[in-house]
Request: fold
Amino acid sequence: MKSNVIHILIIIVAVVAGGLLGKNLQTKQMELSPTRETLSKLPLGGFHKFLADVEWMLFVNYLGSLNTVNDDNVKQVTGRLKKLMSYDPNLPKIYQEGAAMISIADPQETVKILDAACQNPTLKNNSQIPFYAGFVMVQHMTPPNYKDAIPYFKMAIERSGGKDQGNAYYTSYYYRAKAKELAKDKNIDDRHALLQVLYDEWDAAALNSRGDVPSSEFNSQDMKERMLQVVRSIKNPSEDYKPTEAAVKLADEVTKKVFSDAHLCHNCTAAYGPGDKYCSVCGTEIQVYGLCPFCGGVHESGVKYCPKTGKKMP
Ligand SMILES: [Zn+2]
Ligand SMILES: [Zn+2]
Reply:
């Protein structure tokens, strides 16, 4: 209660001080350029931004007085958020922090608010807002709406430039949502679906044709690492997961096509070295590589001449 009073006092002081400062500045400005006043009688934009800041402080204060946002008060909280938006629709924290407050009690309304912010040209470089819209759909809606979340995750990836660390996080959600949709459509398990999604996107990127997302947005090394992880989880499943024959078949195909240069054991996907005939992890016979065409031995990588025959390496 005491902190509330202090909050309100600070706000009143801020409002009064801001008003005085504004008036003072205006007088000073008038001295400098008397025509200025006729040019802009109402500094509405600035004033609304100021109101939005005050309203935001009041909003945070008001939220502090609630134990939780639930069915009883969500309409009221939403109303205050909308009032904030009417003062300054370009304030990112309304969406990034404010919308989070109602996302559990009213995910549909949250997505509506976030969607409007996604279309706002001033916020067009903000990748967190579209990500959050997708996140609310898969995390807070019952049942999760993966299908409609996909375009938001895609937007977040595009806006983040596909390079920073946030992107890897957005990309995980994007692939996962696509996999969930595919799993439902094809009636296959999540892991199998995820591998199919990654493989399709890799294929599209590798062919340099337009995939669902432009291939340039994806780091293929990142995709390969993701694929290898899923391949390994299918080929060496933990006890709680029994892969179907089709899943294993796909994992084999991916190993052959995507990891042909990585020299992975086709049975267990462990990496092996030049000249190895058997996998050191599972004992399976593997395809030998790295033998000298002249003497049949294994040489250090990068040698110019065969040390046994003196012939120039191709
Ligand atoms: Zn092996
Ligand atoms: Zn040799």
About this structure: The first helix runs from residue 2 to 32. The CA atoms of residues 198 and 223 lie 7 Å apart.
